[in-house]
Amino acid sequence: MNHTHETIKNTAKATTKKGYVLSVTGTIVDVQFPHDATPDILHELHIIFPEHGNTPEQKASVEVAQQLGDGIVRCIAIENILNITRGLEVINTGAPITVPVGHEILGRVFNVLGNPIDGKPPVHTAHRSSIFKDAPAFVNLQVKTEIQETGIKVIDIMCPYIKGSKIGLFGGAGVGKTVLVQELIRNIATEHSGVSVFVGIGERTREGNELWLEMERSGVLAQTALVFGQMGEMPGARLRVGLTGLTMAEYFRDTEKKDVLLFVDNIFRFVQAGSEVSALLGRMPSAVGYQPTLATEMGAFQERITSTVDGSITSIQAVYVPADDITDPAPATTFIHLDANTVLSRKLVELGLYPAIDPLGSSSKGLQESIVGSRHYNVARRIQKVLQRYKELQDVIAILGMEELAEEDKSIVKLAKRVQKFLTQPLFTAEFATGMSGRYVSRETAIEDFEKILAGDYNHLPEEAFYMVGTLAEVVEKAHKLQRKTGSDQ
């Protein structure tokens, strides 16, 4: 008993021992501690900036990356270390970075350390959690595959999301990634009482600000926590901010037993930050100059995103592909972990087809007969077949015109145009731009409607009637309105 008390006393004494800044190289700081009080790897240290003129005493966080021996540790800066000088006092917190978790974080914006950056008061929560955790044990993983309904027809039919899966969102600037992200957050929050965590890794500050304003306006902020490690911040902050958001999401899954959505924008910048930190620490670079620890870092992050017996974290990650090279180690390492790819197409944006998700370019492991059922599977495959044939015929149509096509091909083109238009729908978060009220379409309704359209029963209705509607009933209603309008015009 006495021995245990003695150990606790000694540990407390060791962690309260102070160190001082030995040397600074860019964003890497070497700190000298007493030999018997060397901090552990991944522990958070506070560099104390003394009071100077009108500036009060401040502190900046760094994280232990290497132990160099003789009580010296090499740290990566997590916060701005401007005005740092040798000899400054450093305090060992005795633990890794911890962040607030729980209901109190919803509707708030945080940095990598879990401090609010939205100008509102600090978050008072009974729970704080370390950002470093092991992935859930194999025995706790959920085996059954349950579909996560999104209410967006093109996703639910063509590339269905599985609860606890990881989805890659591919698309350039201005194709609607952010609107799609907001719509998914809104639908999960409203229709399924779910919570969302948005993580901006290497985001432009302007983008983060716009996202926050947009969410506040569309009313989804109350069910969302936002975490940002912005572009101008330290590489250490950008490397760890993904773990901050993931830790917040894990609390809702493991303690509240909820289904959580985790959005990461952009996963490539997580890799980039790791590469910067690795170079600063003097590690020998690996393929294409990336860090030798790339696969380990990505695996440690991605394997925590999963479905357990308690709840699930479904992650949607924006993926930037450098120089459109799909074999680049960063996207290639990300692909290994993804279960579905949602591709946004600029061509569809130009045609005014929103959401601009390419039904032929997108794919999902969820689109299997054993998971979605034979009815859904057959509908999706028939849509793909019709759209693929239409794509093949487009060159012929462009050169020779519709008249030169065989009767069978003419009817396929007619059907494909209606299917393509019916894959669009008005989104709630785009109401301000379209002037149309949003639609949530259940998967069951979407399957039923597409079955009827593919049977050719509605080919007599005008193409425009299928554009930007929710259900087939709306198509019929819109067609009657168009006919009445045409009649009155004549």
Describe the structure.
There is one protein chain. With 490 residues, the protein is α/β, with parallel strands linked by helices. Helix content is 38%, strand content 19%. The protein contains 15 helices and 18 strands. The strands form four sheets. The protein has an eight-stranded mixed sheet with strand order 8-14-13-15-16-12-17-18, sandwiched between helices. The chain has a six-stranded antiparallel barrel with strand order 1-2-5-4-3-6. Helix 4 links the parallel strand 13 and strand 14. Helix 5 packs across helix 6, helix 11 packs across helix 12 and helix 11 crosses helix 14. The longest helix is centred in the C-terminal third of the chain and has 27 residues. The protein is elongated and about 85 Å long. The N terminus is likely disordered.
Features:
490 residues, alpha/beta, 8-stranded mixed β-sheet, 6-stranded antiparallel barrel, 15 helices, elongated, disordered N terminus
Reported for the largest beta sheet, the result is: 8 strands, mixed
Low-pLDDT sequence parts: 1-15
Percent strand equals 15-25%
User: Residue share in helices?
Assistant: 25-40%
Record the strand order, biggest sheet: 8-14-13-15-16-12-17-18
Q: Helix segment count? A: 15
| Count of distinct strands | 18
Radius of gyration: 27 Å
Short description:
By secondary structure, the protein is α/β, with parallel strands linked by helices. Helices cover 38% and strands 19% of the residues.
Topology:
Layout: H1 2-16, E1 18-25, E2 28-32, E3 44-49, E4 58-69, E5 72-77, E6 89-92, E7 98-100, E8 109-110, E9 128-130, E10 147-148, H2 153-158, E11 161-162, E12 166-170, H3 177-192, E13 195-201, H4 205-218, E14 224-229, H5 235-254, E15 259-265, H6 267-280, H7 294-302, E16 312-318, H8 329-335, E17 340-343, H9 346-350, E18 363-364, H10 369-372, H11 374-400, H12 407-422, H13 431-434, H14 443-454, H15 472-489
Parallel strand pairs: 8-14, 12-16, 12-17, 13-14, 13-15, 15-16
Antiparallel strand pairs: 1-2, 1-6, 2-5, 3-4, 3-6, 4-5, 7-9, 10-11, 17-18
Helix pairs in contact: 5-6, 11-12, 11-14
